[in-house]
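Hi V.,

You were right to ask for the full record rather than a summary. Here it is.
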Amino acid sequence: MENIPEFIANHLFLFSLMIGILALLLWNFFGHSFSGVAELTPMEATRKMNHEKAIMLDMRPVKDFAEGHILNSLNIPVEKLSEQQNDLTKYKDRPLILCCRIETDSMRAARFLKQQGFDQLYCLKGGLQTWRSASLPLIRDETKEETA
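Predicted structure:
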């Protein structure tokens, strides 16, 4: 134990690198809890949609949305969220569940919507990949897709 300060002094670069990697690992595991946006499993999301009239907001591109999406979900691609945020104001008093392919875009969008005054925000944990893994149904649009 008494050699630790000497080791750190002799290997400052390696020690700094270790601290940086440790910080990134902790952020990866616990970063979502700092954002103030709760994550829901597919079953919890289904429960919120059925009992609390939550709105599922699909953040994927229109083409991906048409290939398969959750029943009654709205499609606003993450790139167009700032343009179409006014369309979402009618849902401010209802829970919004955001989903994308693997959850990265929905977390970013949730932080943006939180800044715009939305309080009841949730992200589908693991995104649509988790929904598929749970063997839950997706529907396809044969007609032109609607966006919110």
